[in-house]
Amino acid sequence: MTQLSPTQDRSNDELDRLAQLAEDVIRRARAAGASQAEVAASIDTGLNVNVRLGEVETVEHTRDRGFGLTVYFGQRKGSASTADLHPDSIQATLDQACAIARFTEEDPAAGLADAARMATQFPDLDLWHPWRIETDQAIALGKQIEDAGRAHAGITNSDGASVQMGESLAVYANSHGFLGRERGTRHSLSLSLIAGDDEGMQRDYWYDSVRSADDFMSAQALGDKAAQRTLARMGARKLSTRQCPVLFTPEVARGLIGHLTSAVSGGALYRRASFLVDHAGRQIMPSWMNIMERPFIMRGQGSGSFDAEGVATRDSALIENGVLARYVLGSYSARKLGLASTGNAGGIHNLVVEPGQDDFAALLKRMGSGLVVTEVMGQGVSTVTGDYSRGAAGFWVENGEIAYPVEEITIAANLRDMYANIVAVGSDVDHRSHLLTGSILLEQMTIAGE
Q1: Could you read off the pLDDT of 146-158 as tens digits, one per residue?
Q2: DSSP assignment, residue 105?
Q3: 189-214 as b/e, with b when 16 or more CB fall inside 10 Å?
Q4: 228-241 confidence digits (pLDDT tens)
Q5: Where is each Metalloprotease TldD/E N-terminal domain found (predicted)?
Q6: Helix count (H) and strand count (E) of the chain?
Q7: Is the separation of the CB atoms in 211 and 185 below 8 Å?
Q8: Among candidates 305, 302, 306, 316, which has minimal Cα distance to 432?
Q9: Residue 449 reports pLDDT greater than 90
Q10: From the CB of residue 284, how many other CB atoms can be counted at a distance below 10 Å?
Q11: Is the dihedral of CA 277, 278, 281, 282 positive or negative?
Q12: Do 33 and 175 meet the contact criterion of CB atoms below 8 Å apart?
């Protein structure tokens, strides 16, 4: 995969321009009477090509710009944004933010993050890998991926292949004197296929997501994986209602971890809208389980040296020996809770579930008989109560071996019980997300079927 040479790469020039603009607007905001101000500016560019049945369906080139300003007059806050970086638009945005702040009620929790918490070190985390791919090359790659999948006997149709290239430049600055610059790339390939016979049709897909195009799986491998997953679903059956062990594959298991981060995030906690309110320091998972935030993983999907408020990120336990070690807080939610920011304004930076020794096959043996979940559907998860009920598809397992595919079932439990009854975490970690986990085996869930 071809990368840009340094002489072709003008990203640092663009960042310089955004940084100068941000610092200038902060000076103007202070001159207009703001006691504090912060600016976030970004430029995102990309290419997205979709191919179906050997023909081009869509080609989309994007270049999006964003500029957001927040000003504080004491503890009155005003925010405004624009996608136009013309001086007149920037001035109008500044005027609007100041006007809003002057007529907003005071909020004791409002204000910039603590100046002492600002990041001062900015290591190169190897996140910038521009992909010099022309439109015709992207189309050819999409066709190659789709051809690889469609070549498998039993594949009867395609929902298409996509090739995406993305670059993001961002600057955050505030009146503490902090200026942080970030640049990152994210590229992806995907394929969705259909298999059919006299008894019905099944659809499945696969994708790859990387910082550097050099790290992609091959077009052939991606096509093969999508086809194998689709064909494996043929002959799917329903299950009778029962209770049994459930094994979530990594791409589904990370959803369980996402529900955890939502439940311990500041917004849900200070609103008392989480089943984990007041649970810091309490055991919510098995004593062998550890989950760490690792912001400095090289080429990590969520790596970064500062959060959306400029607060320095750091390695930190979220779950330590099964105990909820802390919450996930930005400065506003921290103040509402009488706590300190955890450097998570804007979200988590690489959450790593400590893997076990068992690979997927070993987890099947350990489960014996039960359900492997490869797909979940619907929105039946309540962070308030912890109730979990979602449509699912996957495979029934007997004697440690996959017996047959299943569909049209519902899996249900409460997240509190699900976390407490985790039996094992696999070594098959999925690295395509900022939530890094292997398969997760649960002791028991209710399966609602026929």
Answers
A1: 999 999 999 999 9
A2: P
A3: bbbbbebeeeeeebebbbbbbbbbbe
A4: 999 999 999 999 99
A5: 37-101
A6: 9, 18
A7: yes
A8: 302
A9: no
A10: 20
A11: negative
A12: no
Q: Which residues contact 49 (CB under 8 A, 6 or more apart)?
A: 56, 58, 59, 60, 135, 138, 139, 142, 162, 163, 164
Q: Helices in 70-179 by DSSP H: which ranges?
A: 87-102, 135-150
306: helix, coil or strand?
A: strand
State which amino acid sits at residue 252: V
Q: Is 60's pLDDT higher than 60?
A: yes
Total residue count of the chain as it appears in this document: 450
**How far apart are alpha carbons 395 and 373 in whole angstroms?**
7
DSSP 8-state symbol, 400: T
DSSP letters of 132-147? ---HHHHHHHHHHHHH
Burial of 336 (C-beta count, 10 Å sphere; 0-12/13-18/19+):
middle
Task: Show Cβ contacts of residue 253 under 8 Å, excluding neighbours closer than 6 positions.
Answer: 353, 437, 438, 439, 440
Closest CA to 220 of 143, 166, 162, 160: 143
Rounded Cα distance between 192 and 190, Å, is 7
Write the single-letter amino acid at 33: G
* H/E segment holding residue 231: helix 219-232
Query: For 329-366, what is each residue's pLDDT tens digit?
Result: 999 999 999 999 999 999 999 999 999 999 999 999 99
Nearest to 242 by CA among 45, 109, 361, 412: 412
Alpha-carbon span 373 to 445, nearest angstrom: 11
Q: Give dist(CA 68, CA 309) in Å, integer.
A: 13
Confidence of residue 8 (pLDDT cuts 50, 70, 90): confident
Model's pTM, two decimal places? 0.94
Q: Is the Cβ–Cβ distance between 266 and 334 less than 8 Å?
A: yes
Domains present along the chain, CATH in parentheses: 11-231 (3.30.2290.10), 236-450 (no CATH)
The DSSP element (H or E) to which 122 belongs, if any, is: none
Average pLDDT over residues 130-159: 97
